[in-house]
Please model this.
Amino acid sequence: MASGWAGDDAVTKQIDSTIDDAVAAARAKLGKGPGSEFCLECGEPIPQKRRQALPGVQYCVNCQQTMDAKADKNALYNRRGSKDSQLR
Model:
């Protein structure tokens, strides 16, 4: 239920906007082009099947997992919705 000057569908619009932003960010991260035969981080060869499955891949599985874990710690969206999580 919205209150004040917000419309009744304000929460739904906010959720939709958050989802749209997340989808756009995920699409921007998708690789393009031929990709790399060797990992840019550690220099190990990237398997052919990985390069076929993910066009434009630049990192091996281990390095990509490490980078994803770091990115998750810096998430831009408040999914909990509590005041404590907004005060970070």
User: Anything to note?
Assistant: The chain has four helices and no strands. The mean pLDDT is 81.
